[in-house]
Amino acid sequence: MASISLLQVSVAILGFLTLHYFLFKKPHGRFRRNWPVLRMLPALHMALHRIYDYSVKILEISNMTFPFKGPRFAGMDMLITVDPANIHHIMTSNFSNYIKGPAFQDVFDVFGDGIITTDSELWKNLRKSYQAMIHRQEFQRFSMSTMTRKLKDGIVPLLDHFAEKGTSVDLQDVFGRFTFDTILILITGYDPRSLSIEMPEDELAKALDDVGEGILYRHVKPRFLWKLQNWVGFGEEKKMTRANATFDRVCAKYISAKREEIKRSQVVTDISVAESGDLLTSFIKLNTTKYKLLNPSDDKFLRDTILTLILAGRDTTASALSWFFWLLSENPKVVAKIRQEAINTDISRTGNGQEHLDKLVYLHGALCEAVRLYPPVCFGRKSPIKSDVLPSGHKVDANSKIIICLYALGRMRAVWGEDALQFKPERWITENGGIKHEPSFKFLSFNAGPRTCLGKHIAMAQMKIVAVEILQNYDIKVVQGQKIEPALGIILSMKHGLRITVTKRC
Ligand code: HEM
């Protein structure tokens, strides 16, 4: 009896100590706790729901670099860094030693051999071919006209509808549909019309959402566990397998339709197809010898290309626009300044050409500020081919994992100053009123070095066109009482969306 009481007391004391430890110890201290077997894994899982803010605190008190220890033999150890000197070293000066690596390809396997997942020679050749396609005058014109048309025929009638009805709408959902339709037209030439008053569910968009969630879980689970889950067909992995099948089917449909269209145009010299600016047409007609790609006439190559480009261009821009409008709702003075700038540059009369958009310096600053504080791609992952010592003094072994946490980088006081957490578009404007350039190892939201984002200019133009149209013609009010917080995922979206009401301005 006495021994049972002793056991009960011991359990109670242990319980109390554990509870006290988790309730009252500083959260970031908890995160750094190294347990005997599982090491920092329990802390990571406990902090997962607030991982972004934890990462800021931990990196701030760890001098911007933090070695995370996972359970032994689970392959989860990683060096988390936001030190700009390390970033410059990894992304630019020692670029050839830092690859995404086979572990990254494994996690992102549904995207096959697209530009986001590949390394070395294959990546180099893909990059050259993507650059050539995206920088074509024809594609530039096509993207500008597509974005403007989607805005006028999609977003404007939708906002008019909700303004008239006086009901609320999820602005993040609207932007997600807008960027999905736009990027799909740019890639395939076909409009999925997901942006409409009925807000229909699109199976491809849904599959992409499921994959985003699954990929995040693959990052925080031991590899053998998610592999086993995938094999058994359980949980997020079951959704991944289903999504993969959707990708195969939908992409095959687009590819065969495009091949048919090209064949028809060669017979009938259909001008609209011959002059079509979409990327799929360009990739099907690609000069294979010039770019030394694996098998560019192969449907698998085209499937991977379509998916990679949707991944790169859809949620990224939608996330940036959503956080931007959220930040505006908290900063009405910034809204007034953007409106004044649009009036001063008379953008409504001069149109949406790139040269006119370039005049919107303050808006440019506000958008950079939004993606600094809420970088749509919120972490990057690299692996050294050969062991190395980073400028911060940390040794990294060959094939080890390095995580660059972009969310924390944008909020580091050591990088951005004491006002790092404030939304200040003025940060991006020079004394002469021009755009202030910040080095990419500090402002990493569009990546840095040879792997810099290829769609940065398209995305910035798209966001400027949308911002001017909405701010000049509508008043947006965020519905009170909703919780705004980032969701866990590979793209930094809003967990519960952004419900707004809208009224038309006179
Ligand atoms: C606000 C919008 C966007 C942001 C913040 C953004 C950010 C990024 C980042 C951080 C990367 C590096 C990813 C990595 O290596 O893991 C990247 C790569 C890339 N982005 Fe973007 N992106 C945006 C929009 C777009 C758009 C609209 C397109 C296409 C039209 C695009 C095309 C690409 C491509 C092709 C790459 C791969 C580059 C390479 O690996 O060589 N992006 N982007």
UniProtKB/TrEMBL annotation:
The chain crosses the membrane at residues 6-24. Its cofactor is heme. One of its GO terms (molecular function) is oxidoreductase activity, acting on paired donors, with incorporation or reduction of molecular oxygen. Heme binds at residue 453. Keywords: Heme, Iron, Membrane, Metal-binding, Monooxygenase, Oxidoreductase, Transmembrane, Transmembrane helix. This is Cytochrome P450. PANTHER family: CYTOCHROME P450. It comes from the Eukaryota. Belongs to the cytochrome P450 family. InterPro entries: Cyt_P450 (IPR001128), Cyt_P450_CS (IPR017972), Cyt_P450_E_grp-I (IPR002401), Cyt_P450_sf (IPR036396). One of its GO terms (biological process) is lipid metabolic process. It comes from Capsella rubella.
